[in-house]
From TrEMBL:
<protein>
    <submittedName>
        <fullName>AzlD domain-containing protein</fullName>
    </submittedName>
</protein>
<feature type="transmembrane region" description="Helical">
    <location>
        <begin position="39"/>
        <end position="58"/>
    </location>
</feature>
<dbReference type="Pfam" id="PF05437">
    <property type="entry name" value="AzlD"/>
</dbReference>
<dbReference type="InterPro" id="IPR008407">
    <property type="entry name" value="Brnchd-chn_aa_trnsp_AzlD"/>
</dbReference>
<keyword id="KW-0812">Transmembrane</keyword>
<feature type="transmembrane region" description="Helical">
    <location>
        <begin position="89"/>
        <end position="106"/>
    </location>
</feature>
<feature type="transmembrane region" description="Helical">
    <location>
        <begin position="7"/>
        <end position="27"/>
    </location>
</feature>
<keyword id="KW-0472">Membrane</keyword>
<keyword id="KW-1133">Transmembrane helix</keyword>
<feature type="transmembrane region" description="Helical">
    <location>
        <begin position="65"/>
        <end position="83"/>
    </location>
</feature>
Amino acid sequence: MINREMVWMILAAMVVTWVPRILPFVLTKGKSLPPLTLHFLRFLPLSIIFALTLSSVVDERVGHFPRFLPIETIALLPTFFVVLKTKNILLAVIVGVVVTASLRFLSGI
């Protein structure tokens, strides 16, 4: 049975997740931003994608140098090529998943 504390924790988690995603849209609706802010925000999606990509191809351990994961790094090459040629993120994700799965199957991992 779900107790009252559990319900409050779920509701609090929903608010904490919702606020940083929705609040910026609410606060900037109908307002223009300074040119410097707009220039900065243009690079934000690229930075986020790069950070997510790098974190998925690099293995870091405490006390060791970071190392590139070989299968993921190899799969990154055709995925990057698809993005450059088609500008289609969904197709690139599909290619990345298929290439990674194929390489893992062939290597026996």
